Amino acid sequence: MKSMSVVIIKPSKYDLDGFVERYCKGFMPNSTVPYFQSMIPAVHRGVALRVAAVDEYVHTSLDYLSLLRSQAGERTLVLIVGVQSHQFHRALDLAALAEKGGCMVCIGGPHVMTCDTASVQGRGISFALAEAESILLDLLDDAISGELRPVYGDGERWAAELDPPSVQAPSRRDMKRYIIPMLGVYPARGCPFSCNFCSVIKIAGRRIRSQPVSTTLQTLRAAKAAGIRMIMFTSDNFNKYPQVAELMHEMIREKLEMRFFAQCDTQVGKQDELVALMARAGCRQIFVGAESFDRQTLLAANKPQNRPERYEEIVNLCRKNRILSHFSNIIGFPGQTQAAIDEHVAILKELSPAHASFYVLCPIPGTEQYADFLERGLIDEPNLDRFDTTCLTWRHPNLSRSEIRQALFDCYRRFYTLKHSLAQIPYLPRDDGPAREAAEMIGAVVYNRIWAAKQIHPMSGGVGRLRIDNARDLGDLRMRTFGFALAPLPRNLDLNEQDETGNRSSSAAARALDVRRKLEIQGLAGDYMSTAPRPLLATQ
Fold first, then answer.
1. Tally of CA atoms within 13 A in the half-sphere of 321 that contains its CB
2. Tens-digit pLDDT profile for residues 51-66
3. Is 161 exposed, middle or buried (0-12, 13-18, 19+ CB in 10 A)?
C-alpha cells in the first residue's frame, strides 16, 4: 500500500425537528479539526497519507459524504473528532455510514472520553478514550495494517506533557465558510477549578499543561501569513496559563498585530497588569464564566472562585483597556424561579458588560452534576441531542421546559438593546476606527435579537440556517448497526488512579502558578524560579 486516505470530521447535531444543523456562514470555526490536520504526518511507515477535513456545521452540500466510501484497493481511516454528548447520535450515524462504505472508523471527543460507551462497542467502530496525541500514531499503525482495535487510550486520558506541532492555517476555501477568517489555538489545557457542571477537568485534568510558546508563535505567524484575522485562544483559563506573559510579550515584540479573544476565570478582575498586557498584544474580548450573581448558587455548583461582588471589577478593567467583556450566564439552577431569572438579568444590565450569552443549566454526561442528577432520578430527557445547554433535560422544581426555553431567549431580548450598545461606544477598541466598532456593536444587538426572536441560540453556529438532511435519513442504519433509535443515557467513566491523583494534587500547584504568573508579569520570574521550593514547581 502506497497511500491511505484520512478523513477528519467534526459532526454537527440534530435540531429539535431532526435536521442536521448547517449554516451558510459559520460563526466560530471548530478548533479540533485544524489541530488534527496538523498532527497527521504526510508519510507514516512509508505510506503517504492524504488528509481531508470537514466541519459539518458549515458544509452546505452533502458531497463530502462520498469521502466515507473507501475506493477499491485503497484504505480509508475516518476520524470523527471532538464529539460532545449532543453530537453523539450524529457521530454514530456517520460512523455507521463510513463502516458500511468499507472505511475504518474511530470516534473521539469529550463524550466518549468521559462516558461509558460499552453498549456501542464491538460493532466494527473504534472509540478513543484519551487525548489524540497519546493514541494517534497507534491508530495510524493499525489502520495501515488494516484493522483497528475496539478501544484506544483506556489506560490514561491525558498525557503528562504537551508538545504538539504548530497548527496549520485552514485553506482560503475553508476560511470562506466563516463570517471572518478565524483560527482556534490551544496554548494550554486543563483547569484548576472543579465546577460540578463542567467536563473540562474530566477530559483535560486540573493541572494546566502548556505547549511551548515557540509552537504557539509559529502557529500565529502561519495564521497571519494565511490571512487569519482573529485568533481564539481556546484554553479555559487563559489568565491561569503559566506562560501567558511570555506569549504576550513575544506577540508585542514581533509586532504580530493579531486580534484575539480569550476565556478567563473571574479572578482576572484582579490582574490589572495582565489585562493591560493582553490589550497591548491585541486582545479584543475576554469571555468570563460569571454564571450567577447568587453566591449560594455558585457554592452549590462548586464554583467558589466566583465572587459576584467583584464582577464589576472585570467590566471596569476591560473598559479601561478597551477590551470587550463577555459574561456567560446560566439560567435554571436548582431552586431558581422566573423572578430570580428576571433579577439576574436586571443586575447584568446594570453591570453592563459589552456582551452576554445565556445557557440553560444542563447536566452534561461525564460531569459530577450529571452523575448526581442521574443517581437521583432527576434526568427525564432520553435524547442526547437535547443535552446542548439550550433545553431543559431534567425535572426542575419551578420551571417547565417551555418556560425555561422562553426565558432563555427573553434574556437575550432584554439584555441586547440599542441603549445598551450606545452606552458601550466610549469603551470600544479603536483598531478599525470608532465608526466601524460602533457599527459592530449595534450589529451585535440586531443579530442577537433576531436570533432570539427565531428561538435559535445566537451562539449555535452561524448565520443562514439550512435544512438539507434529517436524522430519519439514517435512522434504519442506526437501528441495524447499534440496535436502538436513541442511545441509552450513559454512566460516567471513572478516572484511573493516576489521573485522579493528578487532579487531587493540582490545587497547591495552581496556587504556586498564580504566584509565578504575577511575578513574571512584573519581570521578576527569574528570581522566583531560582529561589522557589521545587515541590511548588512540579507542574512546570
1. 25
2. 999 999 999 999 999 9
3. exposed
